[in-house]
Amino acid sequence: MEQKIEVVFKTQQAYKYTLRKNNAAQRIVKLKALKDAIEKYEDKLYRALQSDLRKSAFETAVTELFFIYGELDFAIKNLNEWMSPKRIGNTLTTPFAKNRIYYEPKGVCLIIAPWNYPFQLVMSPLISAIAAGNCAIVKPSELSPATSKVIGKIIAEAFDEQEVACFEGNASISTLLLKLPFDHIFFTGSTEVGKIVMEAAAKNLTSVTLELGGKSPTIIDKEVNIEKAAEKIAWGKLVNAGQTCIAPDYVFVHEQQLDEFIGLYKAAVNKMYFKTDKLDTKVYGKIISTKHYKRLKDLVDEAVEKGARIDLGGTFDEANQTINPIVLSKIPNGSKIMEEEIFGPVLPIISYQNLDEVIDQINSKSKALALYIFSKNGKNIKHIIKNTSAGGTCVNDVLIHISNPKLPFGGVNGSGIGSCHGVFGFKNFSHERAVVFQSRLDFSNMIYPPYVGKEWVL
Ligand code: NAD
């Protein structure tokens, strides 16, 4: 495998000089070829996502396919504009020159993806890489093997290996890939592995985009439509069985509203995921692996052993890798569930007395990928936004900021570096090159030596 990877890498390194000459129309042809290949394999993708994650057809359509078709169409529509050099104003040092920013392809890029939205999280950066005129090697996750296989077929259908290639496999394949001097690495996955990727990239001074995880807090202000908040949080928490990087990880609820919120959350879960008192596994996904299932069970067991209260759920079905929605409250300090990203259908609730105490707790942790605020009070909303940091925020909703390609999507420090989607993805895979065209009306020599007679500058 090592040899094959090296051959493909070298071929791409040679081909990148040809590819960079492509204009917008030529790149659009490539994006359309990718779209055609995805459409051809749509049925197989539905089946693969059902097999890997028990993803319903509806969830696959909305969170994987439509998302990618949207990104493709958006790139096709806007690429000409994104690629065109941007005019920049003059300054005293370049009074009559033309100043421009050119977007040049980075070259050969590596895309490493996770398993939770295994199609979307390969394709979204790949669209940006192609739009920006790059060659790419893609490494999908070994934990979603059915989807990874279809991804390999789609890529082989749409591209020659000299332009885009896919290597399936586990961390050992990533390790081989990470030894190579790529021009850019786009990694989506855990914060822990993100550090390994950044360390490997540093050896070659390769630029990185890191789309990582972490604990995304949700604040429910006292002045709120609490029923709506409970419904939205239940959906955001339980879509894909909680295995969503921007899922609300834990919730702050005012101490006087704790029982009301728990009741409303239960009602929302019941409405969305239960049919005549039985969990509806047609709409509710499974945990990706027994290892992840056990990790989640251990997190809950440890919190409960320490004294946490189970307010909902607690039913585990190992044979089907299914964990019914769980709510925990009264969680003792030091519980692992409040330290690690949960990435499963367990919602810890922390009760609070005032918002500043909530802000202090959030700021004591690593910066979140997402922070959600539910409130009717504009002053409180602004106060929270001003005093916290997060990759992205929704006010009175969850997750939806990821769906607008006009917004940057990404983390900050511990939750990521750089951003993706739309023009932000295009820029991440491009080098912004400053180009100055000097004018014939050029007085630069005013600052050249000798300096005698030019002391007036001082
Ligand atoms: P992971 O970090 O375990 O794996 C991600 C990828 O890295 C996989 O392809 C895997 O094979 C590879 N990998 C694993 N170990 C490696 C190593 N030692 N060296 C090199 N490569 C290695 O993450 P995961 O479990 O697949 O995904 C879950 C994590 O991803 C969560 O933390 C989640 O929050 C995060 N995530 C973030 C986003 C985002 O957009 N910010 C999106 C989805 C998931």
Write the layout of secondary structure elements.
Elements: H1 2-19, H2 24-40, H3 42-53, H4 57-83, E1 86-88, E2 98-105, E3 108-112, H5 120-131, E4 135-139, H6 145-158, E5 164-166, H7 171-178, E6 184-188, H8 191-203, E7 207-211, E8 217-220, H9 226-238, E9 250-254, H10 258-273, E10 274-275, E11 278-279, H11 290-306, E12 309-312, E13 316-317, E14 322-323, E15 326-329, E16 346-352, H12 355-363, E17 368-374, H13 378-387, E18 390-395, E19 416-417, H14 422-428, E20 430-437
Parallel strand pairs: 3-4, 3-6, 4-5, 6-7, 8-9, 8-17, 9-16, 15-16, 17-18
Antiparallel strand pairs: 1-2, 2-20, 7-19, 10-11, 12-15, 13-14
Nicotinamide-adenine-dinucleotide is lined by residues 112-116, 121, 139, 141-142, 170-171, 174-175, 188-190, 193, 196, 211-213, 245, 341, 343, 369, 411, 416.
